[in-house]
Amino acid sequence: MTTIDYRALTPNDFAKVIQLANHVHGDGYMNENNIQDWYQKGFKEEINAGFVAYDGDKLVGFRITYAAEQWHIDKWCSPQKWQADTAQVCYFKCNTVDENYRGYGIGSELLKLSIAAAKQQGAIAGVSHLWKQSPGNSAVKYFTKCGGELVQSHPDKWREDALNGYDCILCGFDCHCEAAEMIIYFD
Questions:
Q1: pLDDT by residue (tens digit) across 19-64?
Q2: Residue 108 dihedral angles phi and psi, to the nearest 5°
Q3: Rounded to a whole number, what is the largest CA-CA distance in the chain?
Q4: 89-102, pLDDT tens digit by residue?
Q5: Least packed by Cβ within 10 Å: which of 31, 55, 101, 164?
Q6: CA angle 111, 115, 36 (to 5 degrees)
Q7: Which InterPro entries does this one have (predicted)?
Q8: Per residue in 55-97, pLDDT tens?
Q9: What domains lie within the chain, and their CATH numbers?
């Protein structure tokens, strides 16, 4: 494998990010409207918590992270179980790596970069919802290896999105995939 170039996510990356996201997660997962919103939520103190990974001109991975206080704690979150002030918790929205580049530490490196940026923004922890139906439950395994702790499981987490146009690669437009709400406490 060649050297991977990691850098902050910018609008110049949007088209490639949308393409990779929809290929990996299913059509309708990401579009021009939500990527702009997700990107803006990654900023605090003029620091960007979103990152991309390139092999030459090919986007091979990305991480979308919302800055603390830039995201809505919804019914799928269990803040009463977090051992951190909600005002200091970022949200790891999405980590995606091209299937041909998995197993090389790209996802972990993207997470490390986002954690470093989130810490500069004032976060002391980060929460995510991991897709338990990922092949071999790899999403949960990867996040656990990176220090993530299970908070709670949430059946049907993405069902509403599917009913509104997200075509889950496993369930179609009637998604019943389960999310593992997990948290990483920063050192």
A1: 999 998 888 889 999 999 999 999 999 999 999 999 999 999 999 9
A2: -65, -40
A3: 44
A4: 999 999 999 999 98
A5: 164
A6: 75
A7: Acyl_CoA_acyltransferase, GNAT_dom
A8: 999 999 999 999 999 999 999 999 999 999 999 999 999 999 9
A9: 5-185 (3.40.630.30)
Query: For residues 43 and 21, what is the distance between their CA atoms, to the nearest angstrom?
Result: 21
Q: Token match 């609008």: residue?
A: 11
At 125, list the tokens.
């922890």
Query: Could you identify the residue written with the tokens 């800055």?
Result: 67
3-state secondary structure the chain: CCCCEEEECCHHHHHHHHHHHHHHHCCCCCCHHHHHHHHHHCEECCEECCEEEEECCEEEEEEEEECCCCCCCCCCCCHHHCCCCHHHEEEEEEEEECHHHCCCCHHHHHHHHHHHHHHHCCCCEEEEEEECCCHHHHHHHHHHHCCCEEEEEECCCCHHHHHCCCCECCCECCCCCCEEEEEEECC
Instruction: Extract the tokens encoding 33.
Output: 């409207």
Checking phi first, is residue 138 left (phi over 0); if not, alpha (psi -120 to 50) or beta? alpha
Please tell me the pTM assigned to this model.
Answer: 0.90
Determine the residue type at 129. Answer: H
